[in-house]
Amino acid sequence: MKILFASSEVAPFIKTGGLADVAGSLPQALAALGHEVKVILPLYEGIGDNWRSKMTFAKNFNVTLSWRQVYCGVFELKQDGLTFWFIDNEYYFKRWQLYGHFDDCERYAYFSRVIIEINGQMKYSPDVIHCNDWQTALVPVYLLEERYRIPELAETKTVYTIHNIEYQGRYGESVLGDVIGLNRSYFNEGMLSFYNDVNLMKGAIMASTFVTTVSPTYAKELRTPFYAHGLDGVIQQQSNKVEGILNGLDVDFYNPETNPGLEKNFSVETLDEGKAACKKALQEAVGLQVDPDVPVIGCVSRLAGHKGFSLVTDALHDIMALDVQMVILGTGEWQFEEAFRHAQAQYPGRFAAQLTYSAPLSNMIYAGCDMFLMPSIAEPCGLSQMIAMRFGTVPIVRETGGLKDTVTPYNRYTGEGRGFTFSNVNAADMLWVIREASELYHGDKAAWKKLQVAGMTADFSWAASAKEYSAIYEKICKKTK
């Protein structure tokens, strides 16, 4: 099948978050299944010359966006069995920061128009256009009309993936005609209207052929007001075409046997000595007391309320009353940064606050810690818990979204499981399972190692997820292999 995969960011070219990781890995996994995949993304200023030097100019044309005629240049790069189309428009994309501009609605409406128009210009007839998050949410809406003007799109279906429903592309009603170029009927009939605003994500959910989210549990959670940020009714209404597919992980990069950033590479067979070396290096790097017998709890995250850090600050002194050390890497809301600065001063050698972002240090934490804490209030999928398990670090998570789908709780009677979990948004419940994990670490090394091995040997690759996406494509296009 022919797949056009549309994303506002794609690793390794440009990245701000997990969307780029998905857009960098899933198309490769789909191509490995035999699909013809093209990936389309903006040519941002932040995409370096190392990539630009490999691109070739393919075409330029004008795109109609409301009353505007806007230039579009297409640069092409072929790599790893994929074709990448980079969309060049310096007015919209020559900005170092990807998001947060006053005209983001116009910028990504333009990008969505390009995703439609490029098929006719390049004579490409995709079976499926796979759109991601609010930045490409207008594609299924535009396609409702444009498929009749562009012959290449006559049979094209759309899949829309919600990576984080918190960011919906919500704007005032005035953008409808002047900015995104749609007539009033799209508002009056309820496709884009949302409490007197225009909601791009809502439009995509209504107009797309199929909707996916990034984990099965998250798909269920989005049917409830607590998680859906106002769109629970829309999700319920369209539930017959909504499905959750767990994100995969780049298992080649996050491989403890080959990852170049580790003090000592290791496998399941060399787990003990490898973890010991990585733990010692981490303790020295962040100022923790070097002690091989004390479990180190790690966090790598944006320090935000929805990541559950209020639970951590509420229980911090109780956690430090246990025989543990703790290291936190990340930046975010000031109250959490301040709490962790004070904790570092109060517990020298036992608590380390690394209030920055560092990819090398994050890998050291994944590999050097004994436990990895993710108490998220909401977590659509989460990659950190999977990375931690790949490196033999036992996760402690709240049962939400992808955390629930990937971390099976430890069963003390059978020894089965991959980590420790709690369900309530409650600091005492989190403290209980941290204490449980600490006691198991100190009291039963064999059971602890079994947990580590279960995580390291779990299949978090994209292969299984790609097969599920492939099945959806074939179902909506009514094609079989």
Task: Describe the model.
It is a single chain. Helix 5 crosses helix 8 (200-207), helix 12 packs across helix 15 and helix 13 packs parallel to helix 14. This protein has helices spanning 18-32, 49-52, 90-93, 104-121, 138-146, 175-178, 185-188, 200-207, 216-221, 225-228, 232-237, 271-286, 309-320, 334-346, 359-368, 384-390, 401-406, 427-443, 445-457, 462-477; strands spanning 2-6, 36-42, 56-65, 68-79, 82-88, 128-132, 157-162, 170-172, 193-194, 197-199, 210-213, 242-244, 296-300, 325-329, 351-354, 371-374, 394-398, 420-422. It is built from 20 helices and 18 strands. The protein has two domains: 2-248 and 463-477, Rossmann fold (3-Layer(aba) Sandwich); 271-459, Rossmann fold, CATH 3.40.50. Strand 13, helix 13 (309-320) and strand 14 (325-329) form a beta-alpha-beta unit. By secondary structure, the chain is an alpha/beta fold. The strands form three sheets. It has a nine-stranded mixed beta sheet, sandwiched between helices. A six-stranded parallel beta sheet has the order 15-14-13-16-17-18, sandwiched between helices. A three-stranded antiparallel beta sheet has the order 8-10-9.
The overall pLDDT, averaged over residues, is 96
**Uncertain segments:** none
Alpha-carbon distance between the two ends? 9 Å
Helix content: 25-40%
Tell me the layout of helices and strands.
Blueprint: E1 2-6, H1 18-32, E2 36-42, H2 49-52, E3 56-65, E4 68-79, E5 82-88, H3 90-93, H4 104-121, E6 128-132, H5 138-146, E7 157-162, E8 170-172, H6 175-178, H7 185-188, E9 193-194, E10 197-199, H8 200-207, E11 210-213, H9 216-221, H10 225-228, H11 232-237, E12 242-244, H12 271-286, E13 296-300, H13 309-320, E14 325-329, H14 334-346, E15 351-354, H15 359-368, E16 371-374, H16 384-390, E17 394-398, H17 401-406, E18 420-422, H18 427-443, H19 445-457, H20 462-477
Parallel strand pairs: 1-2, 1-6, 2-5, 6-7, 7-11, 11-12, 13-14, 13-16, 14-15, 16-17, 17-18
Antiparallel strand pairs: 3-4, 4-5, 8-10, 9-10
Helix pairs in contact: 1-20, 4-5, 5-8, 12-15, 13-14, 13-18, 16-19
